[in-house]
## 1
Amino acid sequence: QVHLVESGGGVVQPGRSLRLSCAASGFTFSRYDMHWVRQAPGKGLEWVARIWYGGSDKYYADSVKGRFTISRDNSKNTLYLQMNSLRAEDTAVYYCAREGRVPDWGQGTLVTVSS
Amino acid sequence: QSVLTQPPSVSGAPGQRVTISCTGISSNIGTGYDVNWYQQLPGTAPKLLIYNNSNRPSGVPDRFSGSKSGTSASLAITGLQAEDEADYYCQSYDYRLSGSWVFGGGTKLTVL
């Protein structure tokens, strides 16, 4: 059974950094591309970033390009999202998700950017 | 503004049938990419409802069905129940974004 557990969320001041993690289990992590998706309070879903299964290729939404970095450690079955220069508009629940014919999602972690 | 277009809201009485549309363009749904549908209850993570246009994961009632034609997709819910009241999102891919995910803006289903 696929299990994705996000962690690392919290309250952070504007301009600061935060790193999210997503621990994966129940499947061969190194064989799947992974995504980060976020949802601001009361808003819809917004795709954030994607990383290929081997980590060689990465893609970002324009809203986070140059500030966020997606990475993975296949030896630890863990996905990461390094978020720098955070803004109030980055406040959201962040979900990690597995690419595939039948996508799987985690339960999310809340990031609040506020002074 | 979302890449895929959904109606902001739909409603129906218990037992009725409702449909939710998801409209894209040639660079996403129209180019042949599959469409997935998610149901999101308040305060919870999105739950996969339909994958690859018309397939249901195990445990999803057959009251839920999906279809795709051209640049659009649809989610149909028959025999509407109170617990179906939720937000529904469509998701596909777009080659302008190197095949990464794109979403509809979401549709709020109200069971009258």
## 2
Amino acid sequence: GESVGLHLPTLSVQEGDNSIINCAYSNSASDYFIWYKQESGKGPQFIIDIRSNMDKRQGQRVTVLLNKTVKHLSLQIAATQPGDSAVYFCAENKGGADGLTFGKGTHLIIQP
Amino acid sequence: GAGVSQSPSNKVTEKGKDVELRCDPISGHTALYWYRQSLGQGLEFLIYFQGNSAPDKSGLPSDRFSAERTGGSVSTLTIQRTQQEDSAVYLCASSFGAEAFFGQGTRLTVV
């Protein structure tokens, strides 16, 4: 069943390793997906987006993968750095009047 | 302004008092969202505005919480008879199209 709490799952990685953050979305009609990064004490900031007609999109050190079959979204961060420590949220846009729906977030911790 | 502006940035209030939080979205953004974030936790959806109407109020935790938006622009989130569990950061976001832009939030502390 779905978690009713908002406690964040945590992913701990060694500096320099690659990180993979996963997100499951709920609506097969969603046509746009976004990853946000939230550093301590700040509001979420846009990282990268992907439309439903794509399965992969690359940015600078980040890659987003979309698997529509299983409604799964992932964010890969290459060569993780201390500045990557943050909470990462995925969001889906269902279109129309539904707006954006955010996932619960994952706390990425970088070990030296 | 260039981004989403929220005020105040910090608010300390006594239990039982009412508070009003303000959000100035990016000019022209039709959609506006309010979220709540407790320390170390994820985003808790509160309410979504499209223009001045709120098609989704499902996240408002109780009838002590209300929000309005006027002129398709500024929004206020009001919490009546505040409780200690209302202490959190309240985030506002606006969008035109799909991507949302967030403000820095209002940190509310109820003592």
